[in-house]
């Protein structure tokens, strides 16, 4: 006949387990999440208080790491967090050695370890893999539970593996981050000096001059909108700036598909992660003028930009191929402090770009100038890169004649056929 140990204290259940092991054929009711907490705290569930620790996409992993550290430090006993399910752990890739955080598990800490009173930490993975953590104490020990909550929050701030990294933001029913290696060097980006001047002005607002601006009553948060035709270096500029700041700043890259979907949560995460650069790629693909289709993406962008904590050190760099398609409300000065046009490169700039791209291919300076003079109007830096790539792949040599032949073919200028396929 099964033995129901619900409500019994830990000493009783341990004694039964020992007897069961000695007899070999005794049976006890499986431990439930409720009985595990009751055993650990020594009182029935009606006398428990749960203090929730709020987590977000920016903090959930850090909270999990903080809990895992405490479990290891105090050799906490593990048990079910829900029903009779066994404790589970989730592997996390933090860009270095693999680590793990609790999935669905509860951990019992004896009095005198994590706190002066017994405490249970209950971790559950909720909707869309969002970690939920509760500090369970006896109802008379709420103050001690709140102290444990605060301790975990503080540890999580120090442990947060997302801080200082480059993150790609995606929305699949909720915000999620993927860390990646960010590359870029302004020495490799050929744009007019005025572009860098505006960028550097905004960078100073969130770095060297942030505190001075706050003292004068100005906001530290800045926004720069880079506009111009495709391929002229807008993305390269944003990545180069981000590469200079990553480490001291967290960089969040938001693609066009994600710009109009829950952008407010990105900026909430940016504030939680401290100093941050938010890059919004191709905002014109998601945000149009009012009345030109779905206005929800525009509203999302405006709400997000308006909601940034004015004292936060958050730099937004947005790019667009078509600034005319953006609603005026999105580009006014209180949302983007600078609107910088990045046009097609000049002849001198093209010579510089082609010279960098062809190092080691045997071209002279005069050869580079001849090739540039043969290029069609409105050639972008991306076009030059595509030209060099095609010449190399053609495997017919990399001399002046090979480049001029490829220029005549215009093969790098992708053209969509006109008409219909029958």
Automatic annotation (TrEMBL):
<dbReference type="Pfam" id="PF00004">
    <property type="entry name" value="AAA"/>
</dbReference>
<dbReference type="InterPro" id="IPR050221">
    <property type="entry name" value="26S_Proteasome_ATPase"/>
</dbReference>
<dbReference type="InterPro" id="IPR003960">
    <property type="entry name" value="ATPase_AAA_CS"/>
</dbReference>
<keyword id="KW-0645">Protease</keyword>
<dbReference type="GO" id="GO:0016887">
    <property type="term" value="F:ATP hydrolysis activity"/>
</dbReference>
<keyword id="KW-0547">Nucleotide-binding</keyword>
<comment type="similarity">
    <text>Belongs to the AAA ATPase family.</text>
</comment>
<dbReference type="InterPro" id="IPR003593">
    <property type="entry name" value="AAA+_ATPase"/>
</dbReference>
<dbReference type="GO" id="GO:0005524">
    <property type="term" value="F:ATP binding"/>
</dbReference>
<keyword id="KW-0067">ATP-binding</keyword>
<keyword id="KW-0378">Hydrolase</keyword>
<dbReference type="GO" id="GO:0008237">
    <property type="term" value="F:metallopeptidase activity"/>
</dbReference>
<dbReference type="GO" id="GO:0006508">
    <property type="term" value="P:proteolysis"/>
</dbReference>
<dbReference type="InterPro" id="IPR027417">
    <property type="entry name" value="P-loop_NTPase"/>
</dbReference>
<dbReference type="InterPro" id="IPR003959">
    <property type="entry name" value="ATPase_AAA_core"/>
</dbReference>
<protein>
    <submittedName>
        <fullName>ATP-dependent zinc metalloprotease FtsH</fullName>
        <ecNumber>3.4.24.-</ecNumber>
    </submittedName>
</protein>
<keyword id="KW-0482">Metalloprotease</keyword>
<feature type="domain" description="AAA+ ATPase">
    <location>
        <begin position="220"/>
        <end position="346"/>
    </location>
</feature>
